[in-house]
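Example 3.2
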Amino acid sequence: QVQLVESGGGLVQPGGSLRLSCVASENIFSFFGMGWYRQAPGKQRELVAEMHTGGNTYYADSVKGRFTISRDNAENTVYLQMNSLKPDDTAVYYCNAEPRKVGAPAYWGQGTQVTVSS
């Protein structure tokens, strides 16, 4: 069973930065891609950023220019660098891994809380 463990969340003031980490229990190249989702209270979970094995990246419009997804292959870790944080970025952030097998369920981490408030 694949495990994804997130860390790095916390309370930060508007305009501040945080870096989230997601450590996978197996080689991240075994996945089609990995990404970060978030869910705010009363809202649906939404995709924030993702990176495919080949290196292609995608960002939600709301975070473009502020968030950066990256990976450390040797550490089986995916990062989300979040800069210029806004109160609207407050949410639980989840790490996601998409299996290469078509139709297989995705893997999820337990989530880490990010709160942006003064």
